Amino acid sequence: QVTLVESGGGLVQAGGSLRLSCAVSGRTFSTYFTGWFRQAPGKEREFVSAISWRGALTGYADSVQGRFTISKDNAKDTVYLQMNSLKPEDTAVYYCAASRAITDYSSRSRYDYWGQGTQVTVSS
């Protein structure tokens, strides 16, 4: 079992920045990818970004590429999502998740464990 706890959400103005954190504990050795997903009201949960267990590989959704940066600190068992140039359409509950799969890291069905989410609200 893997436990993930998100933090860092809040209310920011458009164009502002926010950094989300995901603390990972448990059977972390079984995790290959850690991902960030988000879900806005009335919409499906969508892929945002993912990072491999060593941190060497990263991936981003087209909608956030160039604005968001994913990173990790293995010593602290923490994954981060730095969000810059935020837009109102970035407003959503952000979830971190752990996957044992090596491929298809952008598909939510590949993820085995999920955090409870943290709210990000971007005002105009």
Overview of the structural elements:
- This protein has 124 residues and is mainly β.
- It contains no helices and eleven strands.
- Strands 2, 4, 5, 6, 9, 10 and 11 form a seven-stranded mixed beta sheet that branches.
- β5 (46-52) and β6 (58-60) form a beta hairpin.
- It starts with a strand and ends with a strand.
Describe the structure concisely for a colleague.
This protein is an all-beta fold and 124 residues long. Helix content is 0%, strand content 53%.
Task: Report the strand count.
Answer: 11
Q: What share of the residues does DSSP label as strand, in percent?
A: over 45%
Distance between the termini: 40 Å
H/E element sequence: EEEEEEEEEEE
Q: Into which percent range does the helicity of residues fall? A: under 10%
**Shape, principal axes of CA atoms:** globular
Uncertain segments: none
Mean pLDDT: 95
- Biggest pleated-sheet summary: 7 strands, mixed
Number of helices: 0
What is the alpha-carbon Rg in Å? Answer: 13 Å
Structural class: mainly beta
Structure characteristics:
124 residues; mainly beta; globular
Show the helix and strand layout.
Blueprint: E1 2-7, E2 10-13, E3 18-26, E4 33-39, E5 46-52, E6 58-60, E7 68-73, E8 78-83, E9 92-99, E10 111-114, E11 118-123
Parallel strand pairs: 2-11
Antiparallel strand pairs: 1-3, 3-8, 4-5, 4-9, 5-6, 7-8, 9-10, 9-11
